[in-house]
Specification:
This protein has three domains: 2-206, 2-Layer Sandwich (Nucleotidyltransferase, domain 5); 215-309, DNA polymerase, domain 1 (Orthogonal Bundle), CATH 1.10.150; 321-406, HRDC domain (DNA polymerase, domain 1). The protein is flat and about 65 Å long. Helix content is 47%, strand content 12%. The chain is built from 18 helices and nine strands. The protein has a seven-stranded mixed sheet, with helices on both faces. Strand 6, helix 4 and strand 7 form a beta-alpha-beta unit. The protein is of the alpha/beta class.
């Protein structure tokens, strides 16, 4: 167990403990349990490597209690983190994170299932206070707490041992400021009546962070597939299943096995032999007979799929001229509401949802995200009125701003 204390000459040096054995972890869990008896918040961050292996490898978990006890858990040294996961899994303990998508994902992989919330994501909360849609941790700490963080270790190799003092201090900083950030953000969210909006958006984002795509659905994540016909999509599905299996077997990222470009070319051309696959320009040189033969078998399986059973793209049809014009009108309405609410336009109304509404304007989908939760109140009502002809847009000369008015009847 390695400890550090604040330096009298370096204000950026934080107090933390590097935890590298099970006994030390048990003592800290007991300490954190005591610290959170009345203040039910715990700050969490993770460091991991995902560029070399099939699944991301967790290297460190940082935890900070309300009382400032920071533990940096050296995962490879301890290995079994069951006690930590059970402590964090408490549904009465609010977990503080910043841009927590990947943290939630990798902790779920380590624990075997997603940890219970509730979660408070300082990036999401900041967006509802006009701080920015995707404000970085360093930026929000500087803006809110007036502390400038040293982020030079952000791209360090966290699998390297021993970890340097600079890396450890950086890791401690990633949880040290989460408690005061949450206090500041929560107070202002409450004053503006936006607490539930932030909760709903955090749940929407983090609630799906640990979701894993089924192998048979991986084709949907490949770029360039929109140019393929149904049979080509069936071939692509077989190819992505093969790539996933090969990546698992070799413990490599999928993209290291074969990038998307050759998969798309094979699915488009549907080569008639393994040799023809090896000759494709997009194929890596010296792919080998085994690989080209297995890829050819994928092509054969895809070609054997009946046309009625081929995958189909789930996409909004192209907009006609009127639909495109309506999309521009939606964008103007969103911009006005963005200024009125001090929220980023892309948070208020994602472009894909606006496009779907424009395409289904005669019969809007009630499940469109624009008509759910806080968005219904802030923008959905206005957009629904727009497609129903009940929205008046005018210039208010007295106030010097664009004005939106809801009417009871079609204009």
């Amino acid at each position: 167990m390695r400890q550090s204390s604040p330096s009298t000459t370096d204000a950026t040096q934080l107090a933390y403990t590097l935890i590298s054995d099970a006994a030390s972890l048990a003592r800290f869990i007991e300490l954190w349990t005591q610290d959170t008896e009345t203040d039910r918040r715990i700050a969490i961050d993770t460091e991991f490597i995902r560029e070399r292996t099939y699944a991301p490898v967790l290297e460190m978990v940082q935890v900070a209690s309300p009382n400032g006890h920071i533990g940096l858990i050296d995962v490879p040294a301890i290995k079994d983190l069951t006690a930590l996961w059970h402590f964090l899994d408490d549904p009465t303990l609010t977990k503080l994170v910043h841009a927590g998508n990947q943290d939630v994902e990798i902790m779920a992989l380590a624990f075997g299932r997603p940890l219970n919330g509730p979660w408070f994501d300082t990036q999401v909360a900041g967006a509802f206070l006009g701080i920015g849609l995707q404000a970085g941790y360093g930026a929000i700490v500087q803006q809110v707490l007036h502390v400038k963080l040293d982020k030079e270790e952000g791209f360090s190799d966290w699998s390297r041992r021993p970890l340097t003092d600079s890396m450890l201090n950086y890791a401690a900083g990633d949880v040290h400021y989460l408690h005061p950030l949450e206090t500041w953000l929560s107070e202002r969210l409450a004053k503006r009546g936006r607490t539930q909006w932030a909760i709903d958006q955090t749940n929407r984002i983090l609630g799906h962070s640990a979701d894993q795509t089924a192998p048979e659905d991986l084709w949907q994540r490949v770029g360039g597939k929109h140019h393929l016909d149904g049979t080509g999509l069936a071939v692509l599905r077989e190819l992505t299943i093969w790539r996933d299996q090969e990546a698992r077997r070799r413990d490599k990222p999928r993209r290291n096995i074969l990038k998307d470009e050759p998969l798309i070319e094979i699915a488009k051309r549907k080569p008639r032999s393994a040799t023809a696959i090896g000759d494709l320009r997009a194929m890596p040189p010296n792919s080998g007979d085994r690989v080209t033969n297995e890829l050819y078998q994928c092509v054969q399986r895809g070609l054997a799929v009946p046309r009625a059973e081929c995958p189909k793209l789930d996409s909004t049809p192209a907009l006609d001229e009127q639909g495109s014009a309506l999309l521009e009108l939606f964008a103007a309405v969103v911009k006005v509401r963005s200024m009125d609410t001090d929220l980023p336009p892309s948070l208020l109304a994602p472009t894909d949802d606006l496009r779907q509404l424009a395409g289904m304007r005669a019969n809007p989908d009630p499940l469109n995200a624009l008509f759910q939760g806080w968005r219904e109140e802030l923008i959905g009502t206005w957009l629904r009125a727009c497609v129903e002809g009940r929205l008046a847009v005018s210039w208010d000369a007295k106030r010097g701003q664009i004005r939106l008015d809801l009417t009871e009847h079609e204009a």
